[in-house]
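A quick aside before the break. I want you to see a complete sequence-to-structure record at least once, exactly as it would be stored in a machine-readable document. Don't worry about memorizing anything.
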Amino acid sequence: MFKIHEVRELIKLIDQSTIKEFELEVDGAKMSIKKNGGAVVETGIALPVEPVVQAVAAPAAVAAPAPVAAPAPVVQVAAAEVAAPAAKPAIDDPSLHKIVSPMVGTFYSSPEPSAPVYVKPGDRVTANKVVCIVEAMKLFNEIEAEVNGEIVEVLVQNGQLVEYGQPLFLVRV
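That is the input. The structure line, written in C-alpha cells, reads:
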C-alpha cells in the first residue's frame, strides 16, 4: 500500500525530472503517473481490494441539539502590558549563512527517533559537522554545515518535506 507522503514525493520528483510516464507496482498496489505538458497528472492508483464487513447499529434516539455557548468576553490589554516576543533572526539577514537542502526529501533532525538531535540553536558547528538528514527515495543523505559558526535557528520541523534549495538552518559565521 502506498503512503501519502511517498506518493507526494514521487509526484515532486517526477515533476522535476524529464520522465514523461511512470508506473509502479508494489505488493499488488499499482500506481501510474503521466505528465501532461509541464504538469504532473496522476492517472490512477489501484489498490488491492479486500472484503469489508461493517456492523451497522440500530439508529439511536435523535439527540437534542447541543446548547450554544455564549461567546467569551473580550479582554482588552494596553500595548505596554504585552511583552514583545524575542526578535527572531531574519531569514534574509546577509550576515547569516543559510544551510539549504540539496534535494527534495524529508528532513530529519536526528539519526533515529530516539536519538538526540544533531544540532539545536546555540550549538557551535564546523564545516564538516552533520546537522541533519534528508531522506529521498529511502536513501538517507547526511547534510553537513559547510561553514564554522553557531546555529541561530532551525527553519524546518522534524519529518517535514523540504524542497531543493530550501533553507534548513541559519548560521552565524
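Two observations worth writing down. The first helix runs from residue 4 to 16. The longest strand covers residues 29-36. We'll return to this after the break.
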